[in-house]
Amino acid sequence: MRASKSEMSKTMDTEEMTMFEGVWGEMHVEYDIFKKRFDVTPLLKGLPNDRDPCPHWGIVLKGQVTMMVGGKKEIVKAGDAYYAPPGHSGIFEAGTELWEFSPNDKLKKSMEVMMRNMEAMSKKK
């Protein structure tokens, strides 16, 4: 299977980010564009240890991501491939674009919590 971002469904378009998504068999595929610095950590509250239990594999095309796993930080820059194991968090810098691949069933569980947290945070603004 193959797809360009323009062939995928645009599922989110906020002032912080734009997300294009698809499901290929058991894998979730997404192309993300971060317009502003985005720290995903507050959205993970309520997941095990307030970290993302879903593993992700990806390639950063532009910008950089700070991955946090087990108290350690790792910078992933444009041109790098990465693996984010269960129990991670991340900060995406403005201008970052990336492809990411995740097991669809595990991602759905994480996204349910993250979307609830996002809605609760938007109501507080």
Explained architecture:
With 125 residues, this protein is α+β, with helices and mostly antiparallel strands. It is built from 1 helix and 10 strands, in the order ββββββββββα. The strands form 2 sheets. It has a 6-stranded antiparallel sheet. A 4-stranded antiparallel sheet has the order 4-9-6-7, with no helix packed on it. The N and C termini lie far apart (41 Å). The model has no long low-confidence stretch (mean pLDDT 95).
Provide the helix percentage. Answer: 10-25%
Task: Sketch the major β-sheet.
Answer: 6 strands, antiparallel
The CATH class, by name, is Mainly Beta
Poorly predicted residue ranges: none
- Any idea what the CATH superfamily is called? Jelly Rolls
β-strand percent reads: over 45%
Q: How many strands in all?
A: 10
Tell me the domain tally.
Answer: 1
Over all CA atoms, what is the radius of gyration?
14 Å
Based on the coordinates given, report the CATH architecture: Sandwich
Give me the secondary-structure category: alpha+beta
Biggest sheet, strands in spatial order?
A: 1-2-3-10-5-8
